[in-house]
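Lab meeting, action items carried over

1. Structure of the two-component assembly. Owner: GW. Status: complete.
Input record:
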Amino acid sequence: MTNQITLALPSKGVIAEPTASFLRDCGLRIHKPNARQYTGTLPAISGMDLLFQRVKDVVYKVSDGTAHLGITGLDLVHEYPHDDLIVIHDRLGYGHCQLVVAVPESWVDVENMVDLADVALDFRQYKQRNLRVATTYTHLARRFLHAHDIHHFTLVKAEGAIEAAPTLGYADIVIDLTQTGTTLRENRLRLLPDGVITWSQASLIGNQRVLQNNPEGLETVRTFLEHIDGALQGRRYYQVTANIEGDKPEVIAQKLAQNPITKGLKGPTVAPIYAVDSDNSHWHMITITVKDSDLSNAVEHIRAIGGTQCNAVPLRYVFMEESATFANLLQQLNR
Amino acid sequence: MSFPSIEQNQHRNQLVAKLRHHMALYGYQSVELPFIEEADLFLTRAGDQIINRLFTFERFGKQLSLRPEFTASAVYRYGNLPDDSIVRWQFDGPVFIDIEGQAANHYQNYSIGAELIGMGGPVLDAEIMLMAIGGLKAQHITNFTLVMGHIGLMRHLLSYFSLDKRTERFLLHHLTAFNHADQGKAHILQKIEQALIGQQRKADTQLTEIQQDSGPVEVNTARILDSLLDFDNRGTTMGGRTREDIARRLVQKQKRANELPQIVDALDFLEQWSLVNASHDEAFPVIAGFIKADDVIGAALLAEWQTTVNLLAQHGIDQIRISPALSRDWDYYTGSVFEIQTDNRETLAGGGRYDELVSLICGKDAPAVGFAYTVDTLLRIAKVGVTPQTAVTITYTDQNSEQATHWAMRIRQANISVQLLPQMTSAISEDASAIINQDGHLVFKNKSYSADHLNAFINDLQGSTT
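Predicted assembly:
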């Protein structure tokens, strides 16, 4: 039995290029010998092959065990569930979108899903037909409509230009993915405020059966997940350095630690500056790790305690004690 | 998964053969329907919520399903016939439905039943019930009660309260709550408050804002729509609806916010309606009391129902219980509904009139009525005798329908198949072979037979076909 791990990646579509960028940012540049081929490697990780597929086929390939891992949209994972399919990481930080219910703008009487339920009954009573819903997400659409007491509808399966369906006349409403809502608006459609079916972004999925049957390959998976966790963690932090005047480093450290956002992951590093001239002999350089959301407040506190020349550098990686994602995967695999 | 034994199979086959023969006496032809159809066909009838109970699969981009029943397929086939066709079809065979909680060997059941499509009226409602009952009697099952309701009359009386359709559906959906001691009116009212009124009050009512801007004038939907549907800004995508559709709903939304008093009145009515559960002699006067004096439609519906019951009573069916709230799929049936129940309230057969399904599936209007036996129950109870060779059609009018039915019953006892057709039906032409004259005699090939000359008629009929 081979120990190779196969990772399925989207070959085309909205998240194909962002996936390649994401992996590059994780230190995992893709090597594809021939642009027309469907295979490749990650030179940074031995023991891992790449398989390029359409974004929907990534789910199929992981579900049937052809691939151990895959990156695809979470919306597709929910649409095509499979017993062996597990979600290893549901927030890779790109490919954000929502699956929504959208109705024609002219339906001024439809403000929410309750109104839409009424309209579905009206179609049956007055037009002797079902409300037609254009979507590629038949499973998610069906479940959502039932949950809102809409039971009489016909799903019109469509693969492209779904937003045009009401204008063209082969559907009455749509259930479709949207990022900004612009395409829907341009097609004279309006989102219902309580019509968000699911939020989605790029996610890492796996086949628990083939992973369980490849214990040696799990070491490759761990290395892969370390890169991903390290990069995702790194995005959340800045390394901040600043110069602070003071005789004792302990006093400076104490002032920094007083504020929880400047106390760092374990504590501040305070190093003496070896000044060229005697006027700067009491200066220290502090180094702390700060969350990106706290950067402005951290700078203000550093200034308040006498800091100056504050530099902030985004971190590339932050490796914690272990890869939390790998630990979670082992739990899912009951190891 | 367990399989029926050979003896069980033989028992079932014998039962089915007898029921087939029995229904053939009424002119119901055996029609074979596909095991596999497009899933939408069954979802159109029953609503999408049964999707998880169907056995579906995808093939070449189409979602297909094993049949869970026969009616939708029969209606679909009817749609391919010329307009105004009249059919009497019977079916039997396995059906497939996943009723939650059942063991795996209950995914497949055997069903046998019949549909009459293209004609309406109490005579034919009675025919279906007489046929269903006759089939049971032929198996020596005599301990049963025919329980009857009327979905059409119930919905018509509910319209007195001018409720929003959604509210009406909600009330009907919770009709069975009246049968439970811990539920009932207060329980339903609470659910309505949560599910309907509460949600609707949260919705931003554009209509009210426009009214406020316009001053204290009555709702003018055209003016409101002109301001709301500014096509320069909103475009012309109407998604299958018209401006009138939208206007109607806007008015309904506002009405719904203020319909609590009507809901309470409607609940009072449904509570009283549910309490009616008696013989037809006792029940019909009570039901008549619900109908307003000037309500012609309500009176006509009740009269139709009474005609059906009278026809049944005249043929010795005295085990009839009128239960107007009999809740057989109120979303599907449109007229009289029935169940034939044992003393233990097990259902031996059930059905009713469904006049809207043909339009929903085929796009053309045609009344329809049908029923099906509960084969599993019959097999347990029935203790388990030729396709009639000669058939005769008797045409009838409103005036002589009872006599026509009486003649038909007597002729069938001689193992001769008889069909009844209304005289004004265009389908009659050369097929019409007998009529009832003003004396109540059967006239066949210009010869008149009184009730005492049944044997002579049978001899002549059989002689004419050899």
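2. GW to write a short summary for the group page. Key points so far: The interface with chain A takes residues 40, 43-44, 47-49, 51, 61, 164-166, 169, 196, 199-200, 202-204, 206, 228-229, 231, 234-241, 245-246, 248-250, 252-253, 356, 359-360, 363 of chain B (CB under 8 Å). The first strand of chain B starts at residue 29 and ends at 30.
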